[in-house]
Amino acid sequence: MKTRIVSALFGALLAASLSVQAHEMRHFTVGSPGKAGEVTKIIHVQATDQMRLVFDRQDIREGDVVKFIITNTGVMLHEFGIDDEAGQKAHQQEMMQMPNMTHDDPNVVSLKPGETRTLIWRFKGMRQHDVIFACNVPGHYQAGMSVRLTVQK
Question: Which of 80, 81, 98, 146 could disulfide-link 108, Cβ–Cβ 3.0 to 4.6 Å?
Fold first, then answer.
């Protein structure tokens, strides 16, 4: 009995570790995570309960390293994610399976009501210039909580 429990726990830990490693190794088509010392532009974003992501500016060019300062101005949980259309759709499916999942990932942060978080993104080496910023809490994207931008070359 103890052997089965230990085996099950080990298997669960191994699966979780592999999942984290796979996520960390993921290559994005819309750029890559950036570092604080590389920031060339700051953009403030509000995540609202009216199911909107409100940007104070949208002038992103290839080569920019943007520090997004995202504030949840509502009373519901929201998230802010950067990806292409396929990545956003895949993340929506994950969120439908685990609706209470929270994030502190290279391209997604979760925001509690009233919380402000930052995400730094490098828009360099892009294979895709159409970028989708979205909240994939179940129902939020479908209600209009996304912004599609074309990063200028």
Answer: 81
